[in-house]
Amino acid sequence: MTVPAILVFDGDCGFCTRSAEVAERIARGRFTVVPWQRLDLDALGLTPQECEEAVQFVRGSGSRHTHVSGHRAVAAALREAGVPWSVVGRVLTAPGLDAVAARVYRWAAAHRHQLPGGTPACALPPGPR
Asked: Is residue 25 one of the residues assigned to a domain?
């Protein structure tokens, strides 16, 4: 079974849901955007913990799936969306900018309950990031 590219987000988070709505608009049908709570994570090779901690971008078929998370998932989705977004996606993972994008993503994930659309329910449980 071939699975189209999927951007997997936390559907319990208001900030994530609003961000996913933006992703759907730029995707133009090139990938799907689905909350992890509605997916068979085992079939995609994901865990609930991975999906709670960071957005995931999954590609694959049959039992072979690959995924990237966090800022690399955002970059992969942007690359999949085509021009002009693909340029932004490549920039996010360019040498020298990859580490900066990772830090910005980790900060946003840790503070998503304080960002536009966020609610106290968006807060991540304490733990290493």
From this structure: yes
Look up the domain containing 38 and give its range: 2-119
Q: Is the separation of the CB atoms in 66 and 60 below 8 Å? A: yes
Any idea of the CA torsion for 31, 89, 46, 58, to the nearest 10 degrees? Answer: 30
User: For residues 77 and 23, is the Cβ–Cβ distance under 8 A?
Assistant: yes
Quote the tokens at residue 24.
């759907």
Distance CA 38, CA 42 (A): 12
Residue 129 lies inside a defined structural domain of this protein: no
Q: What is the pTM of this model?
A: 0.86
Cα(107)–Cα(109) distance, integer angstroms: 5
Distance, C-alpha 76 to centroid of its chain: 9
Give 18-34 pLDDT, tens digit per residue.
999 999 999 999 999 99
Q: How many domains in the chain?
A: 1
**Percentage helix, strand, coil for the chain under 3-state DSSP, each rounded to 5:** 50, 20, 30
Please work out, in degrees rounded to the nearest 5, the angle formed at the alpha carbon of residue 39 by the alpha carbons of 69 and 7.
Answer: 35
The Cα 8–Cα 52 span in angstroms is 10
